[in-house]
């Protein structure tokens, strides 16, 4: 019963950390702000304003559970001071950089460097002081090795999340190019909640982890705690499909994760190199974002008005366009046997048969395909399409 009580208190510790509430507020505000610019561009909202919040409490929870099982059995141990710094760092990064600064490279990296500075200069951060673990009783080298290896693992998780769900519900948008030409683009923006179980010095569990000599205290006990970790990213895509951009970002972040892990392993022999691991993670993640923006700037726009058809930017859910699986980047060439070049051509072709729609589409590989569907009363007159056209 005592063990269950300690577990319950550990889970409850999640809700006394302010970073969680700031993250939740941010995703709610992001959802409603997205609705505003969708309506400005397309005169209709595309996804629910709660889409970001549903994604926040989505697949990240599964990763959090899996990682927590691992961290529980290896005895991941943090300190109250580290967790306090983490909450401050995460709140500042979320408020200043929004989703784009929510990478584990920044939150874990900056927190760990700041904590090392606190340790090195013996700073007093009262009241966030570990009463049961004075700084002098901490094996800081081992502590930093644990954190840099944890950071490498979280970067790998970040890469996986971006590749397999980062492009889900990408938000289409219209913007002007440098020459004033109207082009389509996508905003990739996700924030995932990945709660992480850890231990802190305190009353609760007896010392179970003597194979990992982080502390000098022989009979130390530990309390369970849940860290409100969030992982996120934000990038604009205009020269490629959202899934392609997400895949490239994931590959680069995976490479960074491997590099950080290698530094962590070498740090077991040369402990001071663990600090380099945090620096490499921070600079490397900044470079990944910069490289993406640079590639986008120098590449040709993909979603532009077409002289021989209608460029598709997206399709609303539960509409004829979604039933026909029309995808971003595809081009409508014919509607009901008539060539179409713009919105007016589309109207006229649809008016010829309001009960049925047959389209000839050029897919993203340049190959033609035929799609068709029945039209029902209440269906959008424009098929539920988001188009890029000259204005």
Automatic annotation (TrEMBL):
Segments crossing the lipid bilayer: 15-35, 56-74, 80-99, 104-123, 143-170, 191-211, 217-237, 249-266
Superkingdom classification of source: Bacteria
Keyword check for Transmembrane helix: yes
Residue ranges constituting the PDZ domain according to the UniProt record: 274-365
SMART domains in the record: PDZ
Alphabetized UniProt keyword annotations: Membrane, Transmembrane, Transmembrane helix
Gene3D superfamilies linked: 2.30.42.10
InterPro entries: PDZ, PDZ_sf
Matching SUPFAM superfamilies: PDZ domain-like
Name of this chain's protein: PDZ domain-containing protein
Native source species: Listeria riparia FSL S10-1204
UniProt lineage: Bacteria, Bacillati, Bacillota, Bacilli, Bacillales
């Amino acid at each position: 019963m005592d063990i269950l009580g300690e577990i319950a208190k550990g889970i409850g510790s999640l809700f006394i950390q302010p970073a969680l509430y700031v993250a939740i507020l941010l995703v709610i505000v992001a959802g409603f702000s997205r609705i505003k610019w969708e309506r400005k561009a397309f005169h209709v909202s595309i996804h629910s304003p709660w889409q970001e919040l549903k994604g926040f409490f989505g697949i990240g929870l599964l990763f959090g559970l899996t990682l927590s099982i691992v961290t529980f059995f290896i005895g991941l141990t943090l300190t109250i001071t580290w967790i306090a710094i983490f909450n401050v760092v995460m709140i500042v990064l979320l408020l200043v950089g929004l989703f784009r600064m929510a990478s584990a490279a920044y939150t874990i990296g900056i927190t760990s460097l700041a904590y090392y500075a606190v340790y090195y200069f013996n700073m007093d951060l009262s009241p966030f002081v570990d009463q049961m673990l004075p700084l002098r009783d901490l094996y800081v080298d081992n502590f930093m090795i644990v954190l840099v290896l944890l950071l490498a693992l979280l970067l790998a998780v970040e890469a996986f999340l971006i590749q397999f769900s980062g492009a889900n519900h990408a938000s289409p948008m219209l913007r002007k190019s440098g020459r004033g030409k109207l082009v389509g683009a996508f905003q990739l923006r996700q924030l995932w909640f990945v709660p992480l179980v850890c231990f802190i010095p305190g009353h609760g569990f007896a010392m179970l982890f003597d194979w990992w000599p982080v502390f000098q205290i022989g009979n130390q006990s530990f309390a369970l705690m849940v860290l409100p970790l969030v992982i996120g990213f934000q990038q604009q895509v205009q020269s490629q499909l959202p899934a392609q951009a997400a895949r490239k970002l994931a590959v680069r972040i995976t490479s960074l994760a491997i590099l950080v892990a290698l530094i962590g392993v070498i740090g077991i022999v040369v402990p001071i190199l663990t600090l380099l691991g945090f620096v490499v993670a921070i600079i490397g993640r900044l470079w990944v974002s910069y490289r993406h923006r640079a590639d986008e700037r120098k590449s040709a726009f993909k979603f532009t008005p077409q002289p021989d058809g209608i460029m598709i930017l997206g399709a609303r859910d539960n509409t004829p366009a979604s039933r026909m699986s029309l995808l971003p980047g595809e081009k409508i060439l014919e509607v009901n046997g008539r060539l179409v070049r713009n919105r007016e051509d589309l109207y006229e072709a649809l008016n010829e048969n309001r009960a049925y729609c047959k389209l000839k589409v050029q897919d993203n590989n340049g190959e033609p395909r035929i799609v068709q569907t029945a039209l029902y009363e209440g269906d959008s007159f424009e098929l539920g399409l988001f188009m890029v056209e000259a204005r």
